[in-house]
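Exercise 7. Predict the joint structure of the components listed below.
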Amino acid sequence: DGGITQSPKYLFRKEGQNVTLSCEQNLNHDAMYWYRQDPGQGLRLIYYSQIVNDFQKGDIAEGYSVSREKKESFPLTVTSAQKNPTAFYLCASSVEATGEKLFFGSGTQLSVL
Amino acid sequence: RKEVEQDPGPFNVPEGATVAFNCTYSNSASQSFFWYRQDCRKEPKLLMSVYSSGNEDGRFTAQLNRASQYISLLIRDSKLSDSATYLCVVSLRNYGGSQGNLIFGKGTKLSVKP
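Solution:
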């Protein structure tokens, strides 16, 4: 079945540590996105990529980095520069160029030890 | 200023009830509108797009009022399985000429009781 797979489901980060969240899709979508969701808050865009080897900052990119070396994969690294990383992270992809109808992965809950 | 506002709820309704949510948006340049459903600690899933003429999908009806800048979602004959958070999403397509311009509301929580 086609879909988006995020891993791990739960992740713990120590102070000063970089961690990487995985996102893989087999929907053949060109566009992929990373969102952050805090309790009681709307989703906020971290980074997005419309095509392989290209990505753009979203509204809250500071402290995060991404790569898009393959169409299927869009990993997100939460760096030590992100001082408040605890959140629910959602990866998404879209078939339409406008990126309006999103398909989401099941999310990764990141917590700080 | 980008903003999408929703009543957070919770809306507690009995099975079989009709319930409606509204969502207001501040940017008159908004072009597309959607309702997503999100279950607790799960990913959002597209429920329906909202068209200018209004649209219906089974027990769900979506309406758009551009003049007053709000969209609505009506759920008839509520089921226990409708319990979830409903996210209002507005697209500022071509905002700044970039992609990734969906604005998500914080969601309205619905709880359907037996």
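Discussion. Chain A has no helices and eleven strands.
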